[in-house]
């Protein structure tokens, strides 16, 4: 370990529970129950129940309560401005991923600043606050789509493809597989921006989180329950229905008239994945940075060290080496591949 790595390790370390800050005695997005956890956002592979104390944005705390119940932790603290925890200062900054998502900056006057991005996106997302670049000495970045092949198209163009399909097949329902938190609400906002003022039908698994977004000032328009009673099947012809991908494995999807199975995910750029899922209309819409935005972020922030986690590490580590940048993989365990 070099002297620079030794200094950095006093600020952040990897442990079986996850990323640990010894000078503040807390973990960031731990995969096992710990005494004190700082959480970047509400997706299940980052936000787990059972910690002694949790600090997160107020929206992430609300989302965790919706998903896990009010007693998901013994103590909760909303992040509001810089906080001193032990020997480090901690602050939360918008990540542009989903509602309430944040990067966590950890600073020590003699060591410098580390920023843990969690999941983040630099594409405009009307359902959450935009990504905020935070200067840092150590950047801990996700690498979900860290291959040069991943270059996400304009989401507006993908929505245009969807609406063209709806117009071309007015007798069929379009069923879109979408992650219940973040992606569903973003799709609704994109549809509204594209001029779709008709009702959007949602699976019951999306209802509570959509309702919460509305309370936070996110206008989702006319949402209706995607339930069919006898004799109503034809009422869904030409309609758009959002549901979690798991719903398509059941008979639920076949209740709709000749459904066009769609799926909204950055992984839909991989045709084999679309075929495996039986997707007729893949929509390449992601809430993560693609290769150009990942490399742009590293270049703009120009950290002394880049630590890579959550995904495909080798290519970005190699890119950093070719750019003369210090980088290393963290290989944290317990983080699932999100359908985003």
Structural account:
InterPro entries: MBL, RibonucZ/Hydroxyglut_hydro, Xnuc_lig_assoc. This is Putative mRNA 3-end processing factor. GO terms for molecular function: RNA endonuclease activity. The chain has 340 residues and is of the alpha/beta class. The protein has two domains: 3-149 and 288-329, Metallo-beta-lactamase, Chain A, CATH 3.60.15; 155-283, 3-Layer(aba) Sandwich (Rossmann fold), CATH 3.40.50. The protein has helices spanning 3-9, 58-68, 155-168, 183-193, 207-215, 271-276, 291-301, 314-322, and strands at residues 13-15, 18-21, 26-28, 36-38, 53-56, 75-78, 83-85, 88-94, 102-108, 112-116, 138-143, 174-177, 200-202, 223-225, 240-243, 260-264, 281-283, 305-311, 326-329. The chain has a seven-stranded mixed β-sheet with strand order 7-8-9-10-11-18-19, covered by helices on one side.
| Rough outline | globular
Task: Show unreliable segments.
Answer: none
Mean pLDDT: 93
CATH homologous superfamily caption of the largest domain: Ribonuclease Z/Hydroxyacylglutathione hydrolase-like
Give me the CATH fold name of the largest domain: Metallo-beta-lactamase, Chain A
Assign the CATH architecture of the largest domain.
Answer: 4-Layer Sandwich
The total of helices stands at: 8
Seen as an oligomer or otherwise, the chain set is: single chain
* Spatial gap, N to C terminus: 35 Å
Largest sheet: 7 strands, mixed
Binned, the helix content reads 10-25%
How many domains make up the 3D coordinates?
A: 2
Radius of gyration: 21 Å
